[in-house]
Amino acid sequence: MDDVELTHRECVRLLRSPERGRRGIVAIDGLKPVDRVCLLLDAGDVLIPTGPDSGLVRAAALRPVSLEFTDRGKDGQLRWTVRGIGLARPMTGLDVPHPVPRSTVLAAAPDAFRNGVRVVVARYRGNRSAIPSPRVG
Fold first, then answer.
1. Superkingdom of the source (predicted)?
2. Is 15 helix (H, G, I), strand (E, B) or coil?
3. Could you tell me the CATH superfamily of domain 3-125?
4. Is 8 helix (H, G, I), strand (E, B) or coil?
5. CA 20 to 30 Å from 52, out of 83, 96, 127, 129?
6. Domain residues of the chain, as ranges?
7. Which of 26, 20, 94, 35 is nearest to 60 (CA)?
């Protein structure tokens, strides 16, 4: 079964559906990748809320960041993977959408957007698992 390559636009659409909040792997230039809660904005940029902790903000400011998001079906099979690259900057109050979109991954941290990072994404690339064609004969 071959994977189908996804365009930047297709990746943004997948990342924002069914909800904008999702967990992803975030790797700041040269630092160990970490699992973080992310909020996907309309054009594909990513907000990474850190709540009262400003350590990530200091570590990431104006540095390249790589992102990876995956989605698995109810059966545990990998459905798609999206990878992005961009530049981090400290999040401002103007970056946070009002109201913050409802999301199961964001609900656990009511004060999450006190500090954070905005990743201005330059490009997404992704792959979707192809649906196997039925065997004939």
1. Bacteria
2. helix
3. Electron Transport, Fmn-binding Protein; Chain A (2.30.110.10)
4. helix
5. 83
6. 3-125
7. 26
